[in-house]
Write a structure and sequence with these properties.
The complex is a heterodimer. Chain A is α+β, with helices and mostly antiparallel strands. Chain A has nine helices and seven strands. In chain B, strands 1, 2, 6, 7, 8, 9, 16 and 17 form an eight-stranded mixed sheet that branches. Chain B has a four-stranded antiparallel sheet with strand order 11-14-13-12, with helices on both faces. The longest helix of chain B is centred in the C-terminal third of the chain and has 25 residues. Classes of the chains: A alpha+beta, B alpha/beta.
């Protein structure tokens, strides 16, 4: 089928501001938007720049705006979005070149919530695993799925309007540890996300939940964190 | 000199092996981890089904059984001392991941839950054994996340989105690497006492592959160009179940949970090829079976695919036929809800890419290029060894898919790759740090970035009459067809002639992007150069090995030949040509015998 692919272009070494280029392509409806970008790069304009790696929605490299919504280019097919396709970089992070944005602030936020397992207690006497029931494990299952693609954080109006808001992805990571029965740093993390740059900035716009390519119910997870900070209880 | 960094240990690559190496090396030495991606984007994250360790959490199991299964899986080409070492370390390695917080699925008692996987058996009964520890069907994702998090906790130095281009070897010792910072295009020299390559595999040389775009054989190709040998490059694994045409991985865990393969006539065909363990035979056996069904006209609708059936009623029907039981002896039963919990990503992939629901429909699959068994030769401590005497190269280490220990031999068992990363990543890190404590920095060459610059200059100054994308597409097609699951002399000779042509054409590529910032066109072209080098070595070694063993199947030499070929291949670049030598396989307890599943 014939599609029109409109792509945001910006070359910091040449352009003063961004513009759009339009490419007319003959593709299959089952092709990924990433396949279209590869086709353009391979045959029409080698300078088109974007990140990608796994090409099937598990590495999180190619989050971008497709027809105005944050999606992974490798997990969105032509048939999902129709024959007029506009591709733009994520909002709220500095554009470096074409579809590539500066991910450093995003990862800096991630690092603020102590994104690592903490348990300084002695290991079980048999030296084996710390026991965890299937129910305890299920408690934080969803938030372990996060691939740090930034689709959620860069869809959040509070993130766009703030210099220091942690953003949904960092809160998802906090949730993953706070609700892990084996972890011992819940209190510290709850303290961090209770600060003004944390939970209070979430106004339940639901954009994050809509944007998540891993279908994590982010707003719900943030709600659970809010409740935990109010009650001081994690269960 | 601008942009010179000094470290004791430099790790190249930040997947499972690189992160484990970085974590361990950083405890005893000043360490940097360099990756062309953000670490969490590494291809380890795409591993799905599990990591094996003979815990016996739900049924009897022993590291000796795991060892034997891996030796047999390797078609007796794996080095048995290294395999035994890995399988003995497996339990502690998996426990260490759990202690680092990895969210494994759990048994009702709260222990790590295990599932069946191909080739893992109870050595007494011959039946499949539950050995694969898993976190749903995203075990690799949880490993890469957990290790990255522990590295952050331990303040490991990361250089994200830096592509390593060259390895510096001075006076017969490692001296560092040269990398380009993608965001600026600037070259950086990492001056180090020890270098660990953990750069992954090269499945992107094939048309249908489960591998990430990043899997372009960078580490192997860099080592090769530096005159280091590559081992057993002819052995490449085709995973039986990739999504038709796309190649996206459908974990063996689907069959571990009871899924079966069905041909175009509606028959469960693995009973013919592996009467004992059927759909849970080794990957090479299952991939060949699928190919044979397709070639004999039993693909679905005459096409190049068969079905993977994981519908709960089918799973239970075949489980009853097989007499499959739960650990407590009760008949095996499963519901759609349970399967969804165990395999959420598989269900998601089918829905997104095929528009089907695997709980009510069968999945169209074909074998997909998956795993690099060969690579940079190492011993079991991750030290790179450079000859048939296993002489270690001072200061140089490799671990993970880019390395060849060899534990996978001619065919890797599912779940052993994640185990490989964790065990040998750790030992490479430990050894490198230990070495760095007593070694001095080598003096850098006068112009350390010369080699890297020359590679880029070539790509900027070609005549421009050739397009890298076209060469790449032709290469993938020919490698998949002629150096793929089935091989013969005619096809491989033809492939080698074409590779020579592509290499010549590659000299005429000129990239159009003249910028410095995120010049991905330049990087992709450079990666193509790596893939061409690696493809040539693979085809040459495959043509040379006149037998069939594991993942290397010759139509013109269909049998394994232990008299002449029970040996590793070593290949070197000498005077622009490929020189081939050999080294013996280490055999300790298990004498080669016929391989039956």
């Amino acid at each position: 089928m014939q599609v029109t692919l409109k792509v945001f272009r910006y070359n910091p070494e040449k352009d003063r501001r961004g513009h759009y280029e339009t490419y007319n392509l003959d593709v299959e409806e089952t092709e990924r938007i990433l396949d279209l970008l590869e086709l353009v790069k391979g045959h029409l304009d080698g300078t088109l720049s974007f990140r990608r790696s796994c090409a099937h929605g598990v590495c999180g490299s190619d989050a971008m705006r497709i027809n105005g919504r944050n999606m992974l280019a490798c997990k969105t097919l032509v048939r999902d979005v129709g024959d007029r396709i506009t591709v733009e970089p994520l909002l709220g992070l500095k554009i470096i070149k074409d579809l590539i944005v500066d991910m450093e602030p995003f990862f800096d936020n991630y690092k603020r919530v102590l994104p690592w397992f903490v348990n300084d207690s002695p290991l079980p006497p048999d030296g084996k695993e710390r026991l965890q029931s299937p129910e305890q494990r299920a408690r934080f299952d969803e938030t372990t799925k996060c691939i740090l693609c930034a689709a959620c954080t860069t869809s959040c109006p509070s993130f766009w309007g703030s210099d220091d808001y942690l953003g949904p992805a960092a809160l998802v990571t906090a949730h993953r540890f706070i609700f892990d029965s084996r972890d011992e740093a819940a209190a510290q993390r709850l303290q961090i996300i209770s600060e003004t740059s944390g939970l209070a900035r979430c106004h339940t716009a639901y954009n994050c939940t809509m944007a998540c390519p891993r279908e994590i119910h982010i707003t719900k997870a943030i709600g659970e964190l809010k409740l935990a900070t109010l009650t001081g209880k994690v269960d | 000199m601008a942009n010179v960094h000094q470290f004791d240990v430099v790790v190249v690559g930040a997947g499972g092996a690189g992160l484990m190496a970085g974590l361990y090396a950083s405890r005893g030495a000043k360490t940097a981890v360099i990756s062309k991606l953000y670490p969490t984007r590494s291809h380890t994250g795409a591993a799905q089904g599990g990591i094996s360790a003979a815990f016996g959490n739900t049924e009897e199991d022993h590291p000796e059984w795991h060892t034997y299964d891996s030796v047999k899986g390797s078609d007796y080409l794996g080095d048995q001392d290294a395999i035994e070492f890995m399988c003995n370390e497996a339990i502690d390695a998996v426990l260490e991941l759990e202690h680092m917080g990895l969210p494994f699925d759990r048994t009702p008692e709260g222990r790590i839950l295990q599932r069946n996987f191909g080739g893992h058996t109870n050595n007494v009964t011959g039946k499949p054994v539950r050995r694969a520890c898993h976190a749903a069907d995203r075990t690799g994702h949880m490993i890469v996340q957990t290790l990255y998090q522990q590295c952050l906790k331990n303040k490991v130095n990361f250089f994200d989105e830096y592509q390593v281009l060259d390895l510096l070897l001075v006076n017969g010792k490692a001296a560092g690497v040269v990398a380009v910072e993608l965001a600026t295009g600037e070259l950086h020299t990492f001056h180090a006492k020890a270098v660990i390559f953990a750069t992954g595999g090269h499945g992107r040389i094939f048309e249908v592959t489960s591998n990430a775009y990043a899997y372009t054989g960078d580490g192997a190709a860099i080592a090769w160009r530096c005159g280091l040998p590559l081992e057993d490059m002819e052995f490449f694994q085709f995973h039986p179940t990739g999504i038709y045409k796309l190649g996206i991985l459908i974990t063996e865990g689907v069959r571990g949970e009871g899924g079966v393969l069905i041909n175009g006539k509606g028959e469960r065909f693995m009973t013919k090829y592996a009467p004992h363990v059927k759909d849970l035979a080794s990957r090479d056996v299952v991939s060949r079976a699928i190919y044979t069904e397709i070639r004999e006209g039993r693909g679905v609708n005459g096409q190049n695919y068969v079905y993977l059936d994981a519908r709960p009623e089918s799973v239970m029907k075949y489980a009853a036929e097989d007499g499959r039981t739960n650990p407590d002896g009760s008949p095996y039963k499963i519901t759609a809800e349970e399967l969804l919990k165990k395999l959420p990503d598989i269900v998601d992939f089918n829905r997104v890419y095929l528009g089907i629901d695997p709980m009510t429909q069968m999945m169209p699959i074909q074998p997909t290029a998956h795993y690099t068994m060969g690579g940079i030769p190492t011993n079991k401590f991750g030290e790179v060894v450079v000859d048939d005497q296993n002489t270690a190269y001072p200061g140089l280490y490799a671990a993970g898919e880019c390395a060849c220990v060899s534990i996978h031999g001619a065919n890797r068992l599912g779940t052993n790759s994640l185990l490989d990363l964790v065990v040998f990543g750790k030992h490479a890190g430990l050894r490198a740090a230990e070495y760095a404590r007593q070694a001095d920095l080598q003096n850098l060459p006068d112009d350390p970035t010369e080699g890297a610059r020359a590679q880029f200059d070539g790509l900027r100054s070609g005549s421009g009459k050739e397009n890298a994308f076209d060469i790449s597409r032709e290469m993938k097609k020919v490698m998949f067809e002629d150096v793929g699951i089935y091989r013969n002399e005619k096809g491989m000779k033809s492939a080698l002639e074409k590779i020579a042509e592509w290499k010549e054409r590659f000299r005429h590529v000129r990239i159009t992007d003249t910028g410095r910032i995120f010049n991905t066109e330049l990087l992709n072209a450079w990666e193509l150069g790596n893939m061409l080098d690696v493809s040539e070595v693979i085809a040459e070694c495959a043509l040379n090995r006149t037998e069939s063993r594991g993942g290397h199947s010759r139509e013109d030499f269909p049998n394994r030949d232990d008299v002449n070929w029970l040996k590793h291949t070593l290949a070197w670049k000498k005077d622009g040509k490929i020189e081939i030598g050999y080294k013996p396989v280490v055999i300790t307890k298990y004498q080669p015998k016929e391989r039956v599943y």
